[in-house]
Design brief:
Strand content: 15-25%
CATH class of the largest domain: Alpha Beta
Order of helices and strands: EHEHHEHEHHEHEHEHEHEEHEEEH
Radius of gyration: 20 Å
Helix content: 25-40%
CATH architecture of the largest domain: 2-Layer Sandwich
Shape: globular
Bound molecules: NADPH dihydro-nicotinamide-adenine-dinucleotide phosphate, N-acetyl-L-glutamyl 5-phosphate
Distance between the termini: 36 Å
CATH superfamily of the largest domain: Dihydrodipicolinate Reductase, domain 2
CATH topology of the largest domain: Dihydrodipicolinate Reductase, domain 2
Structural class: alpha/beta
Length: 347
């Protein structure tokens, strides 16, 4: 049995973790924490859990949580995972942080983009970036996992086969244009995410300064082995879940559309959660809703010399809770797909 606590269980990613873990026979949910809803039953706050998860939300008692649980999922705003990971490490327990506190390897870069001091530089050094398709062996041995950002996951999976080839694309030619549903912004009240503001509308935000930019560049640089800079623009679209990223890059000479498509098919042939669509097919967010899947469409435009990749994920699943559970499975020596194999909803 794996003993689990979820810190921030009443947020969108926290409650998605409850959905994924609540009925697993190999998992015991010890503590579900929330400041606002402490003392209330989670199934009354979220009726989709009725009859399945009978826990009452609690204030965080860090001593208790790190005594009782083998692994602690932290689903809090950035900055808040640092003391939790410190205590868990002292007690020999594992942490999976869904936020950004352990993603950027350089504490100064984290402080510049997130505007909070990084108080755990040693843990940051030890933390493993939790993208299984990139380095699942490192995840198996990790004690602190930095679960990747949602936009970041869609973009990294879209570019990884090409980056690993080192010289198939011009590194600084990459443009990532991403669209997210509003659950990406979390559950906390915010005027910009009101139905009246979002409905029938579509807008760009964070243009030229979104905080996922350094995270994407850090991983692409590792994959390619050369400094890589990208242009990243996120957009907000009126849907609850889902991310669609359209990625463009200039291809170096001599590669054909068939060759590039074959590269993607081969790279992901054994990956349980990445599906490369047949040439000429393009993915849609609806196909991955509620699943841990990433679907990719890819082509090469010989006229412009650019590769075009379209990548879709569910931001709360492969972009957050699903990927976090995939990481937990790896850390505990389970089949990576445990509790995560599902077909999407349609329509
Ligand atoms: N939404 C998404 O698609 C994704 C989110 N993430 C990351 O996951 C983390 C959680 O995101 P999400 O679930 O969307 O966020 P939500 O805003 O939906 O939930 C946040 C949770 O944290 C608690 N919380 C909020 N503020 C504080 C605080 N100051 N101190 C302690 N607890 C607090 C809230 O409950 P209460 O206030 O009652 O304590 C709530 O349970 C964030 O770091 C986010 O960046 C990562 C990938 C995708
Ligand atoms: C639509 C929306 O607002 N999305 C969020 C990104 C999702 C998120 O929570 O950020 P992390 O993945 O880094 O944790 C944003 O742009 O800030």
């Amino acid at each position: 049995m794996i003993h689990v606590s979820i810190i921030g269980a009443t947020g969108y990613t926290g409650v998605e973790l409850v959905r994924l873990l609540g009925l697993r026979e190999d998992v015991v949910l010890d503590h579900l924490t929330s400041r606002t809803y402490a003392g209330q039953k989670i199934q009354h706050l979220f009726p989709h859990l009725l009859g399945n998860v009978d826990h009452t939300c609690e204030e965080l008692d860090l001593e208790q949580v790190t005594t009782d649980s083998d692994v602690i999922f932290v689903a809090l705003p950035h900055g808040h995972a640092l003391p939790i990971a410190k205590k868990a490490k002292e007690k020999g327990k594992k942490v999976i942080d869904l936020g950004a506190d352990f993603r950027l390897k350089d504490a100064a870069v984290y402080e510049e983009w997130y505007k909070v001091p990084h108080t755990e530089p040693k843990l940051l050094e030890e933390a493993v970036y939790g993208l299984p398709e990139w380095d699942r062996d490192a995840i198996k041995d990790a004690t602190v996992i930095a679960n990747p950002g949602c936009f970041v996951t869609s973009i990294l999976l879209g570019l990884m086969p090409l980056m690993k080839k080192k010289d198939w694309i011009v590194p600084n030619s990459i443009i990532c244009d991403s669209k997210s549903g509003t659950s990406g912004a979390g559950r906390a009240g915010n005027v910009a995410n009101l139905f009246t503001e979002v409905e029938s509308s579509f807008k760009a935000y964070g243009v030229a300064h979104h905080r996922h930019t350094p995270e994407i560049e850090q991983l692409l640089t590792q994959m390619a082995g050369t400094d890589t800079m990208i242009q990243f623009t996120p957009h907000l679209v009126p849907m609850s879940r889902g991310i669609l990223s359209t990625i463009y890059a200039t291809v170096t000479g001599g590669h054909t559309a068939d060759e590039i498509h074959a590269l993607f098919e081969e790279a992901y042939a054994d990956e349980p959660f990445v599906q490369v669509l047949p040439a000429g097919m393009w993915p849609m967010t609806k196909s991955v809703k509620g699943t841990n899947n990433c679907q990719l469409g890819v082509t090469y435009d010989e006229r412009t010399g650019r590769v075009i990749i379209v990548s879709v994920i569910d931001n709360l699943m492969k972009g957050a809770a699903g990927q976090a559970v995939q990481n937990m499975n790896l850390m505990f020596g389970l089949a990576e797909t445990t509790g995560l194999q599902m077909i999407g909803l349609f329509p």
